[in-house]
């Protein structure tokens, strides 16, 4: 795991060392073990290293035998040993035992198609010195991030946005269309960011660029479920078990101790149980005081599995004390309350280990969210003739807002494509119009959430409703929230977080599951739960999903009067957000008239981000020391 950065300029000179040094040092938390800069005509590459595979020899940048191809790489390649054996059999000579070196040699042979061979999580760039061409890639699901800013004179890129803004390469400014998207999704969907002029390379994409030309971005892979009605029972259970064992074993590569993040749920428990078959395991969990505290059940699970367990209960005071650090580390606003919990549990783990395995991706692949069962509940209304559904919908809209059953009728008479745009839907378009100042309500380049989801719904119309919802989340929610949060929170502590559920072997099994094996039998993750009988404790196997249940509603209501509004006002967002509307939401929340916790949280996270990263009135997002350990002019 590492951090990468670089600049490609139009003129045939080396980019400024001072700028490259600043960009690279702003990523030091991602790689405290080594740092380097490589420069040549048109190009400069920076690298920070967290040494896990071949700690003595795996320094970067990496080069081909003849020095033509130069690579900086962030991530892990889990199938690098068989790839290396094949490449050596075809005459390639390796200088290190690192996983990243296979990328350079694969690119020599296959060019852009090299990504099809890679099993792992990655973001990398390769400079072709002969062709004066830059190539970059991001892994299939978007586990590792890569950002870029393209101008007429230069193309800059980095593992984190703070490398671009903190070094002065990009002036921080809010992108209006991204603010509207964020207020619905609680994150900014790919390929945009909250910063004007900064974009993400989307998951499953590559780019090529030459000096003075804009990058050409292309998709090379996209997830899509392919349910098979006959794929049920013992056959799929056996395949799931075998795939899980293979995925976990492949994710245990490296020369550092590997721990596991353990909640009270089935996903992480299955990983920890599979890891125990390979030796002792350290597990880590956090929770929040109250009835939904997961630390007790997680500790009992750890005892049953025989792991060395560490846990911590997060108080309200500690939660809000950590929030400024979380907001700054995320680079852009991401209003997922569980980000603080992930920040704290990875901080806990980083005291002992350099790597952890975690359960991200299981819910999206195996049908773990309760919302995926909604189509079953709404089926009686969905089966009604269209004219009758529209009549019922119009009648329900005229009923009092709090009337029992009104929401059921409204959702059941609304097409799936209109009611579901992903796992989070914070502000509706109507609510955003009330919240935002007039100048920000219809910005150029804005794509509504429904229009964004429609691109995916158009290609998944042949799937069952639950699978269509999973497809939306696999393409939007998973890379935009879950994986971005996992990378940023773990790397804040120089901890590599690996996600075995997103290995290709598990994906190929999960995509074949029919609806009854995902959300059948009155539960979620039906096939996964059945498959894990005998591997995980029975009390865990059938336990409903919790997922870092933050008592946000209660905590926001309990904050001293004026504290929440004061934090929001300190972010200087009055030019975007109508603060009287925020005061109304807060008043209704405190009085118990409505639960506005997620709306208030979304505004708060934007305000804190704006204060720290744009207006610079709060603690800065980053600060860079002046020196690097290695500066290389050529290889």
Automatic annotation (TrEMBL):
Pathway: Amino-acid biosynthesis; L-asparagine biosynthesis; L-asparagine from L-aspartate (L-Gln route): step 1/1
Protein residues bound to L-glutamine: 99
Enzyme Commission code: 6.3.5.4
Domain spans labelled Glutamine amidotransferase type-2: 2-212
TM region positions: none
Keywords: Amino-acid biosynthesis, Asparagine biosynthesis, ATP-binding, Glutamine amidotransferase, Ligase, Nucleotide-binding
Chain sites annotated for binding ATP: 261, 286, 358-359
GO molecular function: asparagine synthase (glutamine-hydrolyzing) activity; ATP binding
Catalytic activity annotation: L-aspartate + L-glutamine + ATP + H2O = L-asparagine + L-glutamate + AMP + diphosphate + H(+)
Superkingdom, natural source: Bacteria
Active-site residues annotated for this sequence: 2
InterPro entries per the UniProt record, alphabetical: Asn_synth_AEB, Asn_synthase, ASN_synthetase/amidase, AsnB_N, GATase_2_dom, Ntn_hydrolases_N, Rossmann-like_a/b/a_fold
PANTHER family the UniProt entry points to: ASPARAGINE SYNTHETASE, ASPARAGINE SYNTHETASE (GLUTAMINE-HYDROLYZING)
Protein known as: asparagine synthase (glutamine-hydrolyzing)
Species, as recorded: Paenibacillus sabuli
Gene: asnB
């Amino acid at each position: 795991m590492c951090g990468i950065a670089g600049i490609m300029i139009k003129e045939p000179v080396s980019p400024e060392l001072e700028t490259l040094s600043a960009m690279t040092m702003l990523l030091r938390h991602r790689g405290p073990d080594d740092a380097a800069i490589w420069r040549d005509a048109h190009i400069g590459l920076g690298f920070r290293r967290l040494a896990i595979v071949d700690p003595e020899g795996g320094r970067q940048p990496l080069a081909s035998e003849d020095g033509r191809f130069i690579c900086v790489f962030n991530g892990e390649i889990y199938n690098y040993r068989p790839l290396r054996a094949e490449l050596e059999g075809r005459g390639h000579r390796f200088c290190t035992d690192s996983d990243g070196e296979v990328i350079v040699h694969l690119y020599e042979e296959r060019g852009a198609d090299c990504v099809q061979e890679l099993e792992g999580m990655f973001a990398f760039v390769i400079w072709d010195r002969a062709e004066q061409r830059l190539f970059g890639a991001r892994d299939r699901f978007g586990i590792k991030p890569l950002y870029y800013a393209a101008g007429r004179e230069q193309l800059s890129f980095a593992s984190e946005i703070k490398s671009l803004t903190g070094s002065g390469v990009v002036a921080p400014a809010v992108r209006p269309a991204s603010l509207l998207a964020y207020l619905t999704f609680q994150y900014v969907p790919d390929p945009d960011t909250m910063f004007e002029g900064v974009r993400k390379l989307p998951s499953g994409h590559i780019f090529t660029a030459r000096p003075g030309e804009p990058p050409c971005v292309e998709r090379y892979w996209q997830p899509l479920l392919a349910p098979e009605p006959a794929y049920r029972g013992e056959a799929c259970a056996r395949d799931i078990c075998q795939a899980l064992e293979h995925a976990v074993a492949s994710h245990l590569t490296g020369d550092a101790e590997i721990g596991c993040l353990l909640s009270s749920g089935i996903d992480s428990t299955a990983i920890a149980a599979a890891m125990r078959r390979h030796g002792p395991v350290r597990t880590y969990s956090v929770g929040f005081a109250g009835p939904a505290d997961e630390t007790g059940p997680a500790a009992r699970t750890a005892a049953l599995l025989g792991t060395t367990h560490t846990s911590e209960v997060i108080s309200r005071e500690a939660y809000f004390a950590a929030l400024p650090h979380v907001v700054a580390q995320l680079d852009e606003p991401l209003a997922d309350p569980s980000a603080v919990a992930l920040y704290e549990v990875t901080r806990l783990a980083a005291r002992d280990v350099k790597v952890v395995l975690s359960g991200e991706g299981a819910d999206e692949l195996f049908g773990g969210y309760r919302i995926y069962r909604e189509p079953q509940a709404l089926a009686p209304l969905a089966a009604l003739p269209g004219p009758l559904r529209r009549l019922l919908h119009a009648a329900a809209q005229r009923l009092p807002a709090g009337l029992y059953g009104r929401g059921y009728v409204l959702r059941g008479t609304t097409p799936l494509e209109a009611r579901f745009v992903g796992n989070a839907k914070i502000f509706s378009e109507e609510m955003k119009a009330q919240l935002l100042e007039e100048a920000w309500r219809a910005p150029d380049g804005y794509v509504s959430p429904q229009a964004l989801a429609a691109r995916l719904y158009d290609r998944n119309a042949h799937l069952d409703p639950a699978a269509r919802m999973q497809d939306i989340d696999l393409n939007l929610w998973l890379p935009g929230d879950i994986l971005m949060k996992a990378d940023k929170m773990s790397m804040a502590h120089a901890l590599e977080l690996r996600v075995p559920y997103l290995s290709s072997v598990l994906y190929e099994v999960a995509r074949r599951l029919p609806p009854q094996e995902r959300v059948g039998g009155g539960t979620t993750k039906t096939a996964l739960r059945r498959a894990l009988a005998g591997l995980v404790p029975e009390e865990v196997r059938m336990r409903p999903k919790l997922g870092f249940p933050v008592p946000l509603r209660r905590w926001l209501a309990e904050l001293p009067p004026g504290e929440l509004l004061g934090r929001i006002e300190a972010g200087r967002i009055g030019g975007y957000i109508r603060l009287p509307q925020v005061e109304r939401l807060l008043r209704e929340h405190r009085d118990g008239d409505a639960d506005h916790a997620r709306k208030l949280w979304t505004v708060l996270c934007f305000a804190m981000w704006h204060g720290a990263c744009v207006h610079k009135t709060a603690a800065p997002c980053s600060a860079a020391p002046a020196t690097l350990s290695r500066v290389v002019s050529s290889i």
